[in-house]
Structures are given as C-alpha cells and as structure tokens.
UniProtKB/TrEMBL annotation:
Domain of life: Bacteria
Residue ranges of domain Translation initiation factor IF- in the record: 57-171
Protein name, UniProt field: Translation initiation factor IF-2
SUPFAM superfamilies referenced in this protein's UniProt entry, alphabetically: Initiation factor IF2/eIF5b, domain 3, Translation proteins
Presence of keyword Aminoacyl-tRNA synthetase: no
GO CC, alphabetical: cytosol
Alphabetized GO MF terms: GTP binding; translation initiation factor activity
Length: 248
C-alpha cells in the first residue's frame, strides 16, 4: 500500500488516497472496504460475498428470462427494448446504464437486463438470445464464443466508443416502436337540414355543407347538441339524384 508520494504505508486515515496492490480483481465503485484481524477472517468474508454475488447474478438472469416469458404471454401495450450492456470500465458502465434507463417512456420501456465490465462473452450472448435483447459493447468487443452465437442466431450487436452516439441510436430504436400519434383534421362540416326515410335504405340525411368539403368514404362523426351519436364512414353521397365523390 503506497500513498500519493509512492511511499509505502501501513495505515491510512479518512480521505487519504492510496494505491493498493495484490487484489484478486477490480473492485466496483461504491464497494465497502473492510479491515479484519487476519487473513483467515478475510477469506471467510470474501467467500461469503462471492457466494452472495453469484446468487444475485443468477437471480437477475432468471428474472430477466421470466419477465420476457410473461411479456410474450400477455397482451401488454408497452413496447420493451431489452439491452445487454458491457463496457470497459465501471464508471462508463454506470453512466450509460443510468442514461439508458432514463429514456423509458409510458409507451416504450428500456430495460438493461444485464450489465458488466469486460468483453462480451458467450454467456452474454445467450442471455441476449433468451431475453430478446440488443447486445451493446462500449469500448469492448465480443469474444469468439459470443461471435459464433451472435452470428448463428442473428442477434443485434452494436459497438460504440462515444456515449452520445449510443444513446442517440437507442432513441431511434425506440421511436420505431412508438405507437403513431394520430392527429385529427376536420376537412368539412355539414349541417343536417332534414331526414328522409327510404324503405330499402333507411334514414337519409339531407345536409348543407357549411365548411370545407365532404367526401365519400371519409370518416364522419354525427353530433347532436355537441354529443357524439354516431361515428363511421360516409358510405353514400349524392347531390340531388347524382352520386358524387365529394361536395363543397
């Protein structure tokens, strides 16, 4: 353990930066750093934490599979973009994951079903296959096993080195899944002046066009005292005795 002057130290106080060597792996941001009495106790704590980590990881993977299964079985109107995310460092991973999850809307949910630091592995590819997810790599690449699965199954694999490009492409994918926004445009207004009845046809409305144009086969809405009493298509349109396509 060395301090900022590269001097070896045996103990440090709060807020003192140090460099530690000899760790078996890279700790994640926010991990607790415990000091114990001896190496035996340290191994016990490490083994316990590794077991808990494996349980949580397996539970997350299984949950992702089950959620996908139920979404396929149900008739949920919310579209879902599943993503398996791998990045080169923990800081980038957390930033990208947070930005992606903030993209969710009422119509499209962005779900990072799995994330981690390091290259894209066969396990990642299989999870993407099971959860119908896009595989996203930030400054990382897929190994041979992952590439074989991705190519065989036709999975969507995307590489990025700039965060904003990654976010923009996910936004574009979301826009393709959004339900179209329909805007009503009133093209004509007619006023019913009289109602005639024909034996084989039924009620016929005699109307005067007061705004715009009225066209056959267009959608119409009939109002009485501003209350909708009928909605449908205009099936027949006549001007006097002649069939016409439109009337102004």
């Amino acid at each position: 353990m060395t301090n900022e002057l590269a001097q070896q130290v045996d103990e440090v106080g709060p807020a003192m930066p140090v460099e530690i060597q000899g760790l078996g792996g890279t700790p994640d941001a926010g991990d607790d750093f415990m000091v114990v009495a001896d190496e035996k106790k340290a191994r016990e704590v490490a083994n316990f934490r590794q077991g808990k980590y494996r349980e949580v990881r397996l539970a997350r993977q299984q949950k992702a599979k089950l959620e996908n299964m139920f979404s396929q079985m149900g008739q949920d109107e919310v579209a879902k973009v599943n993503i398996v995310l791998k990045a080169d460092v923990q800081g980038s991973l957390e930033a990208i994951k947070g930005a992606l999850e903030e993209l969710s809307t009422d119509e499209v949910e962005v779900a990072v079903v799995s994330s981690g630091v390091g290259g894209i592995t066969g396990t990642d590819a299989n999870l993407a296959l099971a959860s119908e997810a896009i595989v996203v790599g930030f400054n990382v690449r897929a190994d041979a096993a992952a590439r074989e699965i991705i190519e065989r199954e036709g999975l969507d694999l995307r590489y990025y080195s700039v965060i904003y490009q990654l976010i923009d492409e996910v936004k574009q994918a979301m826009s393709g899944m959004l339900a179209p926004e329909w805007k009503e445009e009133i093209v004509g207004v007619a006023e019913v002046r009289d109602v005639f009845r024909a034996p084989k046809i039924g009620a016929i409305a005699g109307c005067m066009v007061i705004e715009g144009n009225v066209h056959r086969n267009k959608k119409i809405r009939v109002l009485r005292d501003d209350v909708v009493i009928y909605e449908g298509e205009l099936e027949s349109l006549r001007r006097f005795k002649d069939d016409v396509q439109g009337s102004a």
